[in-house]
Please model this.
Amino acid sequence: MNSESQLPSGYPPKQGLYDPAYEKDACGVGFVVNIKGRQSHTIVRHAMQVLVNLNHRGACGCEPNTGDGAGVNMQMPDKFLRKAATAAGFALPPVGEYGVGMVFLPKDAERRAAFEREFAQIVHEEGQTLLGWRTVPTDNSSLGATAIAGEPFVRQVFIGRNADALIGGDALAFERKLYVIRKRAERAIRYNGHEEGNRFYLASLSSRTIVYKGMLLADQVDAYYPDLLDPEMEAAIAVVHSRFSTNTFPSWERAHPYRYLIHNGEINTIRGNVNWMYARQSVLESELFGPDLEKFKRQIIDPDGSDSAQFDNALEFLHLAGRPLHHVAMMMIPEPWSNHESMSPARKAFYEYHATLMEPWDGPASIVFTDGVSWARCSTATACGPRATT
Model:
């Protein structure tokens, strides 16, 4: 495998005093929700305004119009996607019966088509139905030269749910299958030495959420993605992020949000955390993933991800393997509990038990996460808890 193919597009290889393993950031985070679960375009517009208000928490390079990264992770906007799919020439099944991926691809049309064919083959092998592709409208007129140099070709892929090929009948069975498809595609395309393979990146692939992000300033996001201005782009949950990549290189892939979280701060223990995850790979078992686990268990952590991305990788896997999202977050970011005199015995017992399973991922100032159904905010000083919107 070509080691440089594992670097995000635009990143230099390890050299001198620079090592991409030390990429960290300190950023601005925000979220807007309707606690009754009512979707509206107002939630999306308010989220975009929150993002603009976080402009001071993001950063730009020597070009004032090239940002470190910004974006939004929102609940599945079914009404808009249904309209967009019809315009692209295919129909969608009911909400929950399809997933959508936000895919970064090379600008070269021939190479892009080859990657899409390989992705389609993986979808077929996993027993799901590829419904169609849609080119996402973008407008880079406000972007600086550095952002444009790394700009991907953005496509959406729609995948129909086939219950007969899923493992288990629970609410996350389809999400797990989409996760397997994404992991297989990353291994086959991004990490397999393909020319421009590092240009292939799935910002999200889910039946519950979708991510619009990029190497953008906060006020460039909805200008770059006109989809976000459409009145039928509706959600009840939207989390936004403006990135400040401290002494690091920005990229389109490393912009937040990730598939579940947005993060402000640094994971100070990231090398140990990732190494422990690697050490556990050979003994992992999961009834929910079943035989699918063997297809990805040695690539749970993306080797070229930032500290936030790798935290998201672990959070995502542990959640899909059966634990509620807030449960996983409390495992990974425990409160200071050992000498906490006023903490309830039950909560202290929770942390003490899970300390035998998972070491703390120490350092985040604030993390907000959502699965498109519920959301929560936590840090090393406060416990996580679910906030349902339905």
Remarks:
- The first strand starts at residue 28 and ends at 33.
- The chain has ten helices and twelve strands.
